[in-house]
Amino acid sequence: MAVKATNRKPLKGNDRSHALNTSKRARKLNLQVVTLEDGTKVRMTVREKRTLNKENNTKLKNNNYNENVVVEEKVEEETENNENEEVSE
Fold first, then answer.
1. If we measure between CA atoms, which residue out of 62, 66, 54, 48 comes closest to residue 7?
2. What total of structural domains would you count in the chain?
3. Taking a C-beta distance cutoff of 8 angstroms, is the pair 56, 41 a contact?
4. Number of helices and strands (H, E) in the chain?
5. In 1-89, where do the E strands start and end?
6. For residue 10, what are the contacts with CB-CB under 8 A and spacing of at least 6?
7. Rounded distance, CA 22 to CA 19, Å?
8. Which residue range(s) make up the domain with 17?
């Protein structure tokens, strides 16, 4: 069974007809069962799931960007070293 991970509750209010009749209603949350990386199942809203995915994707993009910069710097250093060796021979 999934654990509920959110404290949010349904939005409650009234439905109003053209004749101004009122009836109670609740706008329920869009809860989904999500499996986390460690294998636990959690019930969370789709909005929270999208936020987590967005945060994870930006972290991955930043890490890839930093790795690409380091790789480019290494390539530049290697080409400079190769040029220096050719000139010295």
1. 48
2. 1
3. no
4. 1, 5
5. 3-4, 11-16, 22-27, 31-35, 41-45
6. 26, 27, 28, 29
7. 9
8. 3-88
Token look-up 């509920």 returns 4
Buried b (16+ CB within 10 A) or exposed e, 56-78: eeeeeeeeeeeeeeeeeeeeeee
Strand 3-4 and strand 41-45: pairing?
Answer: parallel
Tokens, residue 16: 């109003």
CATH number at residue 52: 2.30.170
Residues 6+ apart with CB under 8 A from 11: 26, 27
- The model's pTM: 0.52
Q: Give the tokens for residue 45.
A: 């809203």
pLDDT digits (tens, 9 = 90+) for 10-55: 999 999 999 999 999 999 999 999 888 888 898 999 988 888 888 8
